[in-house]
Task: inverse folding
């Protein structure tokens, strides 16, 4: 991959998520206990596990998993995210979490370091998701679990529409992957006994704008119009719906867990 392109993208990630650190962490839907329990069940996380949370953001998932694991490590490119994660850890009194600021290509860990490696809501931000998955597999132990949790679309055509809308809100977005492509990526990478579970994240459209820092504020009006026009159609793939005067997005999420052979 062209290093200049990756460096520019990393700068975009830092710019966006430095601004998003607090509002992203404050969105209650991102701390949904039911979805966390679903991940714990499908990946069978227990007190003997050492867990790595890749692109951990403000530490929501790492802090949620810590009571169930022996140790959790979170890594993220954005210092503001790790600062927020550290604050949350202190507030919750969790002693078994370490944080690291750094890039994930490559991951700065030795081969076969962790028993579980997870990445939630980040694959659509990666220029090379296959390479990130390969790194996740490298640092997990044999028979260890690798979990990818992310938004998905029903087809490449729907991804194209989704991406056009999402990039108006978040220029660091790269691509929402179709479900079939995500599943194929996991199997091609060599993970075995793969399982998938599904859920949705429901967010008010206007609430999503509180954590949005587009290149142009006028982009938000374009998004509003596109989402309202998509209610009952779902050509975008964001599950737009309306309740009274309020418009909601119901993002489809998949948890794919595979085992390292």
Result:
């Amino acid at each position: 991959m062209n290093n200049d392109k990756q460096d520019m993208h990393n700068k975009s990630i830092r710019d966006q998520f430095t601004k998003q650190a607090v509002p992203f962490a404050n969105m209650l839907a991102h701390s949904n206990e039911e979805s966390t329990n679903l991940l714990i069940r499908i990946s069978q996380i227990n007190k003997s596990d050492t867990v790595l949370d890749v692109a951990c953001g403000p530490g929501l998932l790492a802090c949620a998993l810590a009571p169930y694991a022996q140790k959790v490590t979170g890594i993220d490119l954005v210092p503001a995210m790790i600062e927020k994660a550290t604050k949350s850890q202190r507030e919750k009194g969790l002693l078994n979490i370490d944080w690291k600021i750094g890039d994930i290509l490559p991951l700065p860990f030795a081969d076969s370091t962790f028993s579980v490696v997870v990445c939630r809501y980040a694959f659509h931000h990666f220029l090379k998701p296959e390479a990130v998955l390969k790194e996740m597999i490298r640092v997990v132990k044999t028979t260890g679990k690798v979990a990818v949790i992310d938004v998905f679309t029903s087809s490449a055509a729907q991804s194209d529409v989704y991406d056009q809308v999402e990039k108006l809100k978040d220029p660091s977005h790269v691509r929402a992957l179709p479900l079939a492509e995500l599943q194929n990526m996991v199997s091609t990478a060599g993970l075995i006994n793969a399982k998938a579970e599904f859920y949705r994240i429901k967010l008010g459209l206007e609430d999503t704008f509180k954590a949005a820092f587009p290149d142009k504020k006028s982009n938000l009006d374009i998004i509003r119009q596109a989402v309202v026009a998509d209610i009952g159609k779902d050509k975008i793939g964001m599950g737009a719906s309306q309740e009274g005067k309020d418009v909601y997005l119901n993002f489809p999420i998949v948890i794919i867990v595979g085992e390292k052979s």
